[in-house]
Amino acid sequence: MAPAERVPVDVAVGVLIAADGRFLLTTRPPGKVYAGYWEFPGGKVEPGESVAQALGRELQEELGITIGAAHPWQVELMDYPHARVRLHFCKVYAWTGEFEMREGQAMAWQTLPVQVQPVLPGTVPVLAWFAAERGHAGATHVD
User: Fold this and answer.
1) Domain count, the chain
2) CB 58 within 8 A of CB 42
3) How is 2-44 classified by DSSP, letter by letter?
4) Coil, helix or strand for 51?
5) What is the DSSP letter of 123?
6) 105 three-class SS
7) Separation of alpha carbons 34 and 121, rounded Å
8) Which of 20, 39, 82, 125 gives 20 to 30 Å between its CA and that of 114?
């Protein structure tokens, strides 16, 4: 099936932003496609869930935190070899709980340009949006 014909999977993505402006990136867990690549955390929207509900559930399951309000920000359609995904990026400024990497992933608070690598292709546009919002010129990440 050609990429344009594949039905996209809806994914809720959390862009957690700390008070100092840094944002959270996590690695894809071992055993998953693109394992070890850095991305914003999140996961699939299940039937009957809103994007905000899915994001809350996913971040509780993966990171052990309970988020406050999820502020819809951007939507990006990405074609990967294994799937077509519609990424619903939400900014999150408040959460409670201690971060626990429950799927064996790593986490890092970052600013532009992002120093961790490799960066998941679906994350690159988000870094460009941050750069535009923040008046950042130059590279958004290390290749």
Assistant:
1) 1
2) yes
3) -GGGSPPEEEEEEEEB-TTS-EEEEEPPTTSTTTT-EE--EEE
4) helix
5) G
6) coil
7) 10
8) 82
CATH number at residue 89: 3.90.79.10
Report pLDDT for 2.
Answer: 52
Which residue has better confidence, 4 or 12?
A: 12
pLDDT for the residue 4: 54
* Residue whose structure tokens are 């690159």: 124
Cβ 101 vs Cβ 79: under 8 Å:
no
Residue the block writes with tokens 């900014």: 91
Is there a domain that residue 142 lies in? Answer: no
What is the C-alpha to C-alpha distance for residues 104 and 21, in angstroms, rounded to an integer? 26
Task: Tokens for 61, please give them.
Answer: 């399951």
- What tokens appear for 10 in the block? 């809806």
